[in-house]
Amino acid sequence: MTVRWLEAVCGICLTVSVSCQAGNNLDAVIQPRIVIVIDDVGNNLAQGRAALALPGPVTYAVLPYSAHGRLLAIAAHELGKDVMLHVPMANDQNLKLGPGGLTPDLSETRFKEILNDDLDAVPYAAGLNNHMGSLLTRQRVPMKWVMEVAKSRNLFFLDSRTTRGSVAWSVARKEGIPALSRDIFLDHVQTEAFLSQQFIQAVKIARKHGSAIVIGHPYPITTTFLEKAIPALDEAGVQLVSAPALIMQKQQAELLTKINKKSYEVARPPSAKCTSSQAYGCNE
After folding, report:
1. Are strands 125-132 and 239-240 parallel, antiparallel or unpaired?
2. Worst-scoring range by mean pLDDT, 19-28, 78-87, 263-272?
């Protein structure tokens, strides 16, 4: 990892021998968080094993019925890593989906049957995200079926956002499904310079918004890059968390906000004037 790269991530000046001072301007309670999801796990055993060896709570999205998907899902679980189903969905380019693909021409019954079978094919899947899906994720009805299956199995959904027109995240929220949305694709250009650029952008998003979701793939260049980049997150004052952990943290934050809001409303002094919008705290 170059000094220039570390300078950019940490946001402070460094010399070759100086490390970043983690969290100087950060409150530990609101430490920025990054989720790293490795998609397309299962087709290549060596690349999959190298990805599983990455440090920290990286999350792995496994293709159903892939040659090594079940083996790698079990191995990830045994390492304490979180696993997702990477479910193939219809795309605008008519690219082949492979086994377990979801398309808009399927009946509701068949659609849900395929999705449930896909989930059964990936042991320990705690959630799911879309593989491709630029066509299907724009359609509310199929996305509603996805969320109904997710709800029945107590799963979360990550919208990979392969199209700007995706409604998957909004449908998930409407259906009461814990949901995340991808912020950064890490490695669609496979050069170290591009990976560095994308990773630095993810850190900036996390610092600005509290969290960032990064999706990469088990390419050798990505694995090599992340072996160095992940330890640098701690130095930059950014916490690496799994996708389920971020969802849990967000749910806890939402609950705390509701509790605090309710406590404030109960404790606030009576209003001097009553209005039709006030249900209580009003002198009648």
Report:
1. unpaired
2. 19-28
By C-alpha distance, which of 232, 240, 233, 234 is closest to 3? 232
Residue bearing tokens 């989720």? 35
114 vs 100: CA distance, rounded Å:
6
Amino acid at position 92, single letter: D
- 29-267: CATH class: alpha beta
Query: pLDDT for 235-272, tens place per residue?
Result: 999 999 999 999 999 888 888 877 877 766 656 554 44
CA-nearest of 72, 156, 81 to 122 is 72
Which residue, chain included where needed, has tokens 């159903």?
A: 64
Distance CA 242, CA 213 (A): 10
> Domain segments of the chain: what residues?
29-267
CA distances from 149 to 8, 33, 37, 153, 174 (A): 42, 28, 22, 6, 14
Token pair for residue 64? 């159903």
